Every structure is written in C-alpha cells, then in structure tokens.
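thought: fold this chain, then report.
action: predict
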Amino acid sequence: MPDLVGQQLGNYRLTRLLGRGGYAEVYLGEHLRLNTLAAIKVLLTRLASSEEVDSFQNEGRIIASLIHPHIVRVFDFDVQNDLPFMVMDYAPNGNLRKRHPKGEKLALATILPYVKQVAGALQYAHDRQLIHRDIKPENMLLGRAYEVLLSDFGTALVAQSTGYQSTLQEVIGTVSYMAPEQFQGKARPASDQYALAVVVYEWLSGAVPFHGSSTEIAIQHSMTPPPSLREKDPGISPRVEQVIMKALAKDYHQRFPRVQDFAAALEQANQAGTSFYSEPTLAVPSLAPNAPPGTDSHLFHPQSRPAVPPAMKASPLAMDTVTSEAARAASPASSPPPGQSVLTPPAQYPPVSAPFSYQEKVYPRRRRSAPLALLLLALLLLVGGGIVWLVIPRTPGTPSSSPLPGQQAPVYPNVAGAYSGTINNTTAGIDTSMHLSMQQNQGNISGQFRVSLPLTGNGPFTGNIDTARHIQFTVQGFEGNAPLFFSGLVQSDGSMAGNYCSLGANSQCSPQAGGGGTWRVSRQSNITPSSVTPIGQGNGNVNPKHKGKKKR
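observation:
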C-alpha cells in the first residue's frame, strides 16, 4: 500500500505514520476543522463488494459501541475508495512494548496492574460476545495518565468480516501469543486469556515460552508444555507458576472460566501469607493402584493435631484436592477383619481430637445382688472347677493340661531403604521426580522426602506401616507451608503407590491448603531392620485380631 501521509480520509488529514502491522497501518490524523488529533487505522485490504462493505460497517458499529476506561475508543469508521479505516482516540505515551522492551524482566507487583486493566477490558468485550484475538504488549497502549488502553479490536472486526477472514486467516493474531485453538480457526474468549498468560510469562521470564519458525511455534503451542517458569527464575512462587500454567492449558476447558478469574487468581497468589481457606474440608485418600477390593474401609486418616495449629501458607506442591462429601458425614468404620491392625495417633496428641476414636460402651449400674446369691455362685464355681481338674487329666487320649500359646507379636513388611519415582500434581498437570530415604522401627517409619522442580516441599517425614502393607506418612511443612499427607500401598515387588494431599488448619486434606495428586516410587536400596519381614515372603504367623474397645 502506498504511503498515505498528506492524504485526507474522512474529516482527517494524515500527518505521519505511527506504526505498521500485519494487516493495518496507523497514522496520526488532524481534524480539518477542530484541529484535534486522532489515530487513523487503515486496513491493508480493499472492500470491493457491497456485501463486504456492509459487513465491515456492521462490525464497525460493534467496535464503536465498546466504551470502557481501558479500551481505545473508536469514534468513526468508513470506507473511502474501497479502503476501510477507523478513527480512534490517540494514546500519546506509546505502548507497553516500548516501555518494557523484549528481554526485560518485570516484578509481579509491576505486572499485576497491567493485567488487571487488560483483563477488565477483555471481560467487558467478552460479555458482549467480542473476542480480541491479538493480545500482545504492542496492543496495550498508554493513555495520557499512563493508564493501559487495549487497542486493535480491529482484528476481531477483520476476522468476523465476510470474505476478509478467509484471506487473512494466518495473520489474525500474532503467532507467539496465539492459543492452540486459534490455529484451527476456532478462537473463543479463552483464547484471549491464553495470550494474556503468554504476555505475563514473557514479562516474568524475559522471553515468550516458544521459539522457532511460525510453523514450529504453532506446533509447540498445540503440543508442547511451556517450560517451567521456576527453572528460569526460582524466585517465582509455585502458586504463581500454577496460576499461569492453568491459563496456558492446551485445552481451553481447563483454563479459568473467565479472564478476570485469571487476573484475580494471579493477584491472590502474589499476596504473601494470604489464606485460601473457606470452610473445613475432609478428604479421604483413595486406595493405591491395584489395591485389593474391600480394603477401602481401612484407609488411613491424617494424624490429629493440637486444636490451635500455627498459621500456615498453602502447600507449594499442588492446588486442588478432590474431596469426598461422603467423608463429611461418615460414621466410624466397622471393626477391621482379623489380621488388620489399626494405627492410632501418637500419644502426645489428645485422643479427643482424633478424627476417629474407639469408645467403651457405658452401661447403667446395676443393683448389687444379695450376699447369699454371690456365695452360692462361688460355691458352684469351686465345685465345677474341681470336677474339671479331676476328670480331664484322666480321660483316655487326653493330654495333660499345659499353658495356652502366648500372643504373637505382629511382623511388619520391610520398607526401610531408598526409593525413587514420580509424583503427579493432578491439578496443574505437572509430573516430576520424588525421592524417599526411609528408616523403620517395627511399625514406625521416618526419613527424608525430596521432590524435583518445578514442585517444592523437601522435608522430613514420619508415619506408619501396618502388617497388611498399608503405609502413611506426613511430610513437615516446607518453609511455613502446609504439611503433606501421603497414603498408599506397598506392592509385592517392594514399590509403593498412592495419593497425597495438603493438610489444612483442621489437619484434614484441604484444597484451600494446597492440593494433591498421585505418587509412585520403586526401591533403589534396602535395609533389613528387626521385627520386619521382606516384601513378598510369606508370614507363617497369624496376625492377632484387633482388640480395641467396642465402638458406638
């Protein structure tokens, strides 16, 4: 297109070129009579047919109706000599790309005001069924008071104009910021959220997540997870990274419901010490993979804590824990079958605070019998005992009396050793490695837990193993974060697998405390402590029956 400086479009004379994009040029225009300045956007196409002109004008009315403090106002639009153009408010302070050049890293405190303003503008447009399609720093202008003004809604206009969409499909949006569904020509409001998350990613790390040719970048947007932000900058908190990664989900269904929800979550994640609790939540850990049926009644519950725990931040390992409403109203489980031991909270915690407790049934006191009846009963017992003593030893084929066998102590599986495996954050879709160094003293276990980036939460743990190979342990809170509770099953090959969650203020699994996922580890080396039997070997002893008190 030839240079239009000095020419007149509508009531404006074009004085100089302000910028050029893939589908439009922007000129500074001066009103012929008012001498006021405006930005004149000229689309790089010609609308020859009346249908194309009508479509452009219809979409232009929609754009002009967007009146929001963070959207560049469109005052007028027209088609002159088959050339479509729009008259917009002039932002004299440039854009955020010029203010923060490529490669510059920004603090989240600087980014948040930009994101909130842009998200507010986008939500306003989305509520009116209009998608921007080309979110990037170049389209975030700075007004006279340095407020952010979102511009270039002309992309949406062009995309929705009859005949123009098919010819400019490949340039509707900027490849580095485009959502996967845009490459299929199926842009939706969540596409703008994805692009805004790419901008935040770029500002935090100094670079967009994907690089290469246009085709290579498009494939990466559709197939490749974004590189970890924390690997580029360990100072970024895990919760902030999780919020951004959720907005960058390949499937738009997995992103935030609205773009303003993304902005709010990002602001909340940045607030140090912010509590995410709403109400106490109880979650029952599910069985480990391949667990035998019928064992779900013996799942372990997190150990109790004192009534007033110290203040905790959300766990960095995960955000959402799947909760069980049935667990809220669950009554104490029935007595376990023979051979199943029950682990109770440590003695230092008051039993009254335990999630489940066994209580003796209280019977009303009965009136004492008469002394004569008691004396008669004692005489009958003495006589009967004497008869048994005299008769039984003299019965043919009957062995002489001997003491009953003593109660045999339980024998626990050997789980002491070093383990390595994977942990899966089911909320953020993050898989990384985890390591356990475990010591064992009969049914008690302890050791060190380590996890690789992008997850954090290294620390010591304590827990229990029972004779039926159920295992549970709690990792102490990492740098003030919530503790992590792991439960699972020891497999016949010595590996372990199960689920984990973050413990809230009530010492129960809580999504507000952080969240959870799944884990699986294999033994790398082992130690054989006393009072245990190696995994996979039979146990000739019969486990003693549970002798707890009766339950109400």
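thought: worth noting. Confidence is low (pLDDT under 50) at residues 162-171, 273-367, 393-403, 529-552.
final: tokens above.
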